[in-house]
Design a protein that fits this description.
The chain has 382 residues and is of the alpha/beta class. The protein has 2 domains: 3-75, no CATH class; 100-369, 3-Layer(aba) Sandwich (Rossmann fold), CATH 3.40.50.12660. Helices cover 24% and strands 21% of the residues. It has 8 helices and 17 strands. The protein has an 8-stranded mixed sheet, sandwiched between helices. It has a 3-stranded antiparallel sheet with strand order 8-9-10. A hairpin with a 6-residue loop joins β1 (3-7) and β2. GO terms for molecular function: cysteine-type endopeptidase activity. Belongs to the peptidase C14B family. This is Peptidase C14 caspase domain-containing protein. It comes from Glycine max (Soybean).
Amino acid sequence: MASRQVRCNQCGSVLMVPAAAVRVVECRVCHGMNQIRPSTGPWSQVYNSFHQFGGRLRSFVNTIMPGSVNRNPGYYYGTTPQLGYYPQPLRPSYNVFGPKRAVLCGIRYHGQDSQQLNGTVNDVKNMNMFLVKYCGFPRESILILTDDMEERDPLKFPTKYNIQMAMRWLIEGSQSGDSLVFHFAGHGAQEPDMSGDELDRSDEVICPVDSREQGNILDDEINATIVRPLPRGAKLHAVIDSCHSGTVLDLAYVWSLREGYWTWDYQYYRVRRPNKDTSGGVAICISGCHDDQSSKETPALSGGYAFTGAFTYSFIYTMLNEPGLSYGRLLSAMRSIIRGIPNDPYASLFNTDFIFASRQDLQEPQLSSSMEFDVYATRVVL
């Protein structure tokens, strides 16, 4: 039977339904119920005519009122080719601002076969508790996006669009003295570099829950959204627990080992340097691994009680147990914790393979920054 694609009326995800179906379908992403209209038969002509009229009306309203926003997220991805109409996206109204703000995103990828993860939602819960209890972040200033089965707010599902809007909220209205945190726990990948600014000819990406339908979020976009607008006096920390995440913010400098010495390594072709600097602020990214490595999750670090990302757990553990530590000490301690996992008795119990056979099997947390600084003298302050 022929099938067609429609959009969820709540989160905008793609749904595959029979072409002639008139039925209610549950979205596999946000679990919202959608009434599917027929694409054939006498009623389809009535519906399509009404839909085209509605499109003309919305287009006219958006023309005379540019600030108007379509409140139905299902229309964000839809188009009317005959009219060339591209409706405006639904913009979540996160009204809470302040000197400390954070976006925490954890994705398990429920129902996506071998792509499903186990510890990412736990990572976000742990990071939320750490920021509130030990770093002074107000609960209402932390925006959490997860595909936890308990989450029913479609705007807090980690779709590509929702993550993009959350990053915009994080940076919007920021000023001198602000401390911003972006934490992502989920899949990461690499794609061919189309802009020609990558030394390894690959863009690093993060994978939203609907990446199969909507695509990934490239490092170029992340940089343009939360790095370049960062004003003077503001600081951004990105804590990225995903594979291939070493330079996922496209920052200019990476703390690297060269000829036996640790030093800042410039990341771009100096003859055609891209415009990826901040607007005066400082952006620092602490990544789970290098660009050519993978990040792991394991129950070993939690004593066998729950899966967590090895990187996120080691980050929080080190920050709690060594207050006032420097960035250099943080990296060193985290690497020691992760390398010590094979000796944990729970590793074999849960079949957690951390025996590193090659560089790709290693997981070495990496530091990148928008500017050079003394890694061993500068304290980590969120």
